[in-house]
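Bench log. Compound arrived from synthesis this morning; before running ITC I wanted a structural hypothesis for how dioxothiomolybdenum(VI) ion sits in the protein. Inputs:
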Amino acid sequence: MNKIVLGEPLNRVDGRLKVTGGAKYSGEYKQPGLTYGVLVPATITSGTVTAMDTRAAERAPGVVAVITVFNAPAVPGFQKDAVKPVRGLKLFNDNKVYFNGQPIALVIAETFERATYAAKLVTATYAETPFETSFEKNFDKGVVPNNGQYKDYVRGLADAYKNAPVIVEEDYKLPSEMHNPMELHVTIAAWVGDDEVHVYTKSQGVMGSQRSVANAFGLATEKVHIHSRFVGGAFGSSLRTWPHEIAAVQAAKLVKRPVKLTLTREQMFTSVGYRPLTIQKIGLGATLDGKLVGITHESHSQTAVYEEFTENAVAVSRFLYASANANTRYRVVPLNVGVPCPMRGPGEATGAFALESALDELSYKLGMDPIALRLANYAETDPERNLPWSSKYVKECYALGASRIGWDQRLAHPGSLRDGEWLVGYGMGCGAFGAHRSATTVRIRLSADGRVVLWSATSDIGPGTGTAMTVIAANILGLPADKISFELGDSGFPTAPTQGGSQTVSSVGSAVHDVCVALRGRLYELSGLPVDSTTDIDYVRVLKEHGLPELELSGESKPDAEAQKYSSYSFSAHFAKVAVHPLTGQVRVRQLIAVVDAGKVISHKTASSQMIGGAVGGIGMVLTEEAVIDDRFGKYINGNLADYHVPVNADIPDIEAIFIDKPDPYINPIGTKGVGEISLIGVAAAVANAVYNACGKRIRELPITPDKLI
Ligand code: MOS
């Protein structure tokens, strides 16, 4: 057998289960006596619930209970003296309404249809108070976040760009964007007695969910079992435990039966976060030969009045380019809206749109090629942290991307390249995201039949975690992939971090690497061979010879001190070729190339899919997606997938990912840096810059819809 190499383009190990319906998602677990929960949303945007009439709902067929603030059993973690209080909105704990659509009741019935019907019969009387949902109107109420992590940053002189010979100073606006994974958020809660509960839920981090539920209900952590084996997309919307998940557990306790609570698509717009509406100002100053003199980046984004959300929108401007002077300011504007949360490339995707657009604008002012401008300001070391990069191959990314897209066809003067009726343009934009790694434990077992199973409490929200882990294990152990299975998505498995921030392969993959090396070493030891021997041994025979029915090991793997001496980022350079129709304003993305410096690629097929998926998200960001609130009512007017436009197949061109595929020597034993976030960061700017190159219209307010171009 040919040994599996790192990078092997293995088919998804659970692909067949997924496409045949064999994969079981949270809402599909059978529970005896299951009941169904449907939330009732508030119809005001701010105020209090003074009374509720639940009688009609309670009399409706099949209704088991109607939970409101007036009868909800207390949740220990909601109390003021709780040891670990629940963060954010506490449903049914008080009568306050902070935003339109906030749940004010939960109807439990024998079927989903009956719960849905009865939920419509619940009425409330409110005392309304004035509300604010308009971002523009409240822009000046922006405050420095309370959490202390977003202080103003200055390197050298603040606002130094103002004194440079060539200046760009512009505002860039992004609307709120909704994650809208295909799978709705669903939670099934089933208690065992009074002190133990099973929760089947859409989660990016089963251990985080376990802690949240344990804290909320005052349970021992090990008495909370979170099951999230398959997740139908999340993009950040399942990084935390949401109020409806707590409500499902609370309801199951009250009715003493399992409860399944499914959000509707409309509720997905109010209850599980989104990328916040953001207005950014970029100031760039350069010398006539294109050396940056100063970078200023300011960002205002919306947050909720009841909980503060922050993200790294301005961080990219501190480290992406060499500039002696750089300063950033970050403000949040509390509004009567649901709280935002991280969405793929959280912060950086927003910030990179502004910075990479401004840099493109500067290139035209200077009469310089955008790639040449970036090369003139190449950061050879991290200018923010003053550390060497652990690895950085961005020059190679520029060169590969330019050659693959045919950058030499690009005409510097906008509006000069035609293809029939269409104007054609080229653009590029870069991305970067911190390459992180967290402590992870993996357990491994070799059985007498030669099969290997590994366990870790990580997740797979779609990237193909199990596939990448199988490649690593097969590579180290020298076994075929079908002899290996990787189990995840269960809080009872060994400790792993939440699947967020592009760190799963680096964290869990390193632990898989280490535990496989340990297992292999043990088997060589038993065979009387040195652990680094290259002789092939028959694992099954070794077990047999030593009378072992199986061999099981467990090991923790964590970042070492050496890695801290470097600044570690994944980088991407996105190249777009677009066509703009001058009469209709239609934009067609014709080609998108993502060139990726993410260290060693472990699983080529799934990593490519990650890059393609992120690029699709970027195309949505730049061309179609926008959640709109009618500020007269404080309510989303396009809170459904018919009116909120995600890109469809017809919007998506051939997208190609090219990997530099050079291992990072410091970050971890497998040399990976992560692709989840950089797949999206920089895409919006690449497309917007290509639109400008095509037709000469600079659109600084996303999405770039035809009305803005004609
Ligand atoms: Mo990602 S926004 O860290 O799920």
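What the model suggests: Residues 153-176+275-435+565-709 form a domain with the Aldehyde Oxidoreductase; domain 4 fold (CATH 3.30.365.10). The longest strand covers residues 292-304.
ITC booked for Thursday regardless.
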